[in-house]
Write a structure and sequence with these properties.
- It is a single chain.
- Helices cover 17% and strands 23% of the residues.
- It contains 9 helices and 45 strands.
- The chain has a 21-stranded mixed sheet, with no helix packed on it. Strands 1-4-6-8-10-12-14-16-18-20 form a 10-stranded mixed sheet, with no helix packed on it. A 7-stranded parallel sheet has the order 32-34-38-40-42-44-45.
- A hairpin with a 2-residue loop joins strand 35 (504-508) and strand 36.
- The chain is globular and about 80 Å long.
- The chain starts with a helix and ends with a helix.
Length: 711
């Protein structure tokens, strides 16, 4: 009975609480939903939306934006709270719009000075990146005095940055990257004393950079690359004690590396490439305790000063295309954390230092191309390399067999040296090898059957390889074939790491092309300039991902395999200067991407395939194939005086008869006028004896006769 009354009491108490809650909040529950967004803020957003059109995505949207789409398309519903609109963030108490993120929103149009964005007075964050906004930065931005974050990158803003930018004194982040801004940077930028990030790159700024930059004591990142700044680096940059990134490449800065950079103890990235710096690289540079990446490429530096004690933090050193001479400095061997070393395009001589074996635990990219290095390749020192480029030197000897243990190697470039060896078939054991360049060396002998599972680019041209290639030679080259995975094709990245991209020179469409960066889906095969013979392997048709195929300057015989019609991605084909005969396969005419081809200097005959690709080729692509004919050939050779189709049936006997006829015609043409002219002159001389003739020739003849008589 006691338990019953306890339960009854609990029920009464619970009901009392429910009744109290309902009575207290009945007004709230009955009231209509209250919007957080303030009406004038909503009006400003709607007007701002209507100032611009929604068009196509910008050029880089699909590359850099995670989910590009028109965010403002859903704006404007009268019953909706603008604080819930996509890209809009409001203050939770006041309802004022404080953040506006319209990046990657397909917006197109011009900013006007009376843009309604000026009515969003309390904005702290404004991101308009990756759209197609045009015009100058207008006064409408001046009213946004509470801004701390402004991103206008990847648009088409132009003109000068107004000095009023200095009024946005609360800014901590300013990104104007990739626009068309021009003129000089206003000195008022030094008023942005809270700024931590400043990016003015990829514009058209010129002149000297303002020294007022030294007042931005909180700045950690300064990016100025790809402009036309000139003169010396402002000395006030030495005051930026918190600076971690200084990116000045692709400008016209000049002078020696200033000593005040040595004050930037927090610096991790320094890029001075493609400027007009000169002199010695100072030794103190390698003593900065946090410096991880240094790019000095494309200047006129002449040497390295040796540091007293280099810091071990250096991870990436790029010094290509300068005037460095002598031996590779030994202090580099002390940079134990080095991951990338690029000293290509200099005048270093001597051999590759053996002490570089100290770097083997970290070094992943080594580029010493285009120097005067000699000797052989060192052994057992680069076991975790991802790329090794020593092209355009004077290296001799054989390839060290220790290369087969470099299980991480992706790029091996040995072009233009004096390496004398047989084909390194043992490289097939490298599971990640994607680029193999042996061009212009003294490699020789036959090529054994090989299975390169990941290889996408192979260039063994201009060596002394010989022999035949088996019909199934390319069966196991899956990275170039349709057997490649969908994942391989979808990962269209560039080879290299975040700090360094591999590069190479490749023959493409008859000319040398430099691939500044190598796309991982790029595929090419160049066997030209050797002594291969026999038939072209039919398995070549399995390489359906191939873009460039060059088999020229060999001794291939037989027919061009019809399986080449399966190379649906092919853009360039060269089989010139061989001994091929028969027809050009009609299937090749269906290759819609094939824009450059060369069949010249063979023994081909028959109908030239039709198709627009063939009609755009020069006549020289088919020359010295006397048996070719057809409307396509007549069309491409119509500007030649003697059409190729008329030459195709002439035998040597016919040509001799033609020559005799032409000779008799020429003789007749010269003989008849000669007789007429001779008789006319003779008649004049005999009957009229002009005085000038007698004076000139008559007396001389007399003298000659008299002299002869005397003797």
């Amino acid at each position: 009975m006691k338990g019953f009354w306890n339960s009854k009491s609990i029920i009464r108490i619970t009901l009392s609480f429910i009744f109290l809650f309902i009575s207290q909040f009945s007004d709230v529950l009955a009231a209509p939903t209250r919007h957080l967004c303030r009406p004038e803020q909503k009006d400003a957003l709607v007007k701002f939306k209507n100032e611009f059109e929604i068009g196509k995505p910008c050029r880089y949207c699909t590359m850099y934006c995670i989910e590009p789409h028109p965010k403002t398309e859903s704006w404007g519903n009268n019953n909706s709270d603008c604080c819930n609109w996509e890209g809009v963030t409001c203050n939770a108490k006041s309802g004022e719009v404080i953040e506006l993120d319209l990046s990657c929103s397909y917006l197109h149009g011009r900013f006007h000075s009376n843009s309604s964005i000026r009515n969003l007075h309390f904005l702290t964050t404004l991101d308009l990146s990756f759209n197609d906004f045009k015009s100058q930065i207008t006064s409408s931005f001046e009213n946004l005095s509470h801004l701390t974050y402004l991103d206008l990158s990847f648009n088409h803003f132009s003109g000068q940055v107004p000095s009023s930018i200095g009024n946005l004194s609360h800014l901590t982040f300013l990104d104007l990257y990739y626009n068309h801004f021009s003129g000089q940077v206003p000195s008022s930028i030094g008023n942005l004393s809270h700024l931590t990030f400043l990016d003015l790159s990829f514009n058209r700024f010129f002149g000297q950079f303002p020294s007022s930059i030294g007042g931005l004591s909180h700045l950690t990142t300064l990016n100025l690359f790809l402009n036309n700044f000139l003169g010396q680096i402002p000395s006030s940059i030495g005051n930026l004690s918190n600076l971690t990134t200084l990116y000045l490449s692709n400008n016209n800065f000049s002078g020696q590396i200033p000593s005040f950079i040595g004050n930037l103890s927090q610096l991790t990235l320094l890029d001075l490439s493609i400027n007009n710096f000169f002199g010695q690289v100072p030794g103190w540079l390698w003593t900065l305790p946090n410096l991880f990446y240094v790019n000095l490429s494309n200047n006129t530096f002449i040497g390295f000063q040796r540091p007293k004690k280099p810091e071990p933090s250096m991870g990436h050193l790029l010094g290509s295309n300068n005037n460095f001479t002598g031996k590779i400095p030994s202090f580099i061997c002390e940079l134990r954390s080095l991951e990338t070393l690029d000293l290509s395009g200099n005048n270093f001589s001597g051999s590759i230092p053996r002490c570089m074996g100290n770097l083997k635990s970290n070094l992943s990219h080594l580029n010493l191309r285009q120097n005067n290095l000699s000797g052989g390749l060192p052994k057992h020192i680069f076991e975790i390399l991802r790329s090794l480029d020593v092209g355009h030197n004077q290296l001799v000897g054989k390839l060290p067999r220790s290369l087969r243990f470099f299980s991480t190697l992706e790029v091996l470039n040995l072009e233009s040296n004096r390496i004398n060896d047989t084909f390194p078939f043992w490289l097939t054991s490298l599971p990640k090898l994607q680029v193999l360049v042996l061009r212009s060396n003294a490699f020789h002998g036959q090529i054994h059957e090989a299975s390169f599972l990941k290889l996408r680019i192979i260039d063994i041209s201009h060596n002394h390889f010989k022999g035949t290639l088996p019909s199934d030679y390319f069966v196991k080259w899956s990275a170039m074939s349709s057997l490649g995975t969908d994942e391989d094709r979808s990962n269209a990245n560039y080879m290299g790491s975040g700090y360094y991209q591999d590069s190479m020179v490749l023959m493409n469409k008859g000319v040398e092309s430099e691939l500044i960066r190598i796309l991982t889906i790029y595929t090419a095969l160049d066997f030209s300039g050797n002594k291969f013979e026999g038939e072209i392997p039919k398995s070549i048709g399995l390489l359906e991902e191939l873009l460039v195929l060059n088999l020229s300057n060999n001794a291939f015989t037989g027919h061009i395999p019809s399986s080449m019609g399966n190379l649906t991605a092919l853009e360039s084909l060269d089989v010139s200067q061989n001994k091929l005969y028969g027809e050009i396969p009609q299937e090749i005419g269906n290759l819609s991407f094939l824009s450059c081809m060369n069949f010249s200097h063979n023994q081909l005959a028959g109908l030239v395939p039709g198709g627009q690709q063939f009609l755009t080729q020069p006549c020289s692509s088919f020359e010295d194939n006397l048996g070719l004919f057809g409307s396509t050939l007549e069309e491409v050779c119509r500007d030649i005086h003697t059409p190729a189709s008329h030459q195709q049936y002439k035998t040597p006997e016919t040509e001799e008869e033609d020559e005799e006829v032409i000779s008799w015609i020429a003789a007749a043409i010269g003989f008849i006028p000669g007789i007429v002219l001779g008789l006319t002159i003779g008649y004049i001389l005999v009957f009229y004896k002009p005085e000038w003739f007698i004076k000139t020739f008559g007396r001389n003849n007399c003298r000659r006769r008299s002299t002869t008589t005397t003797h």
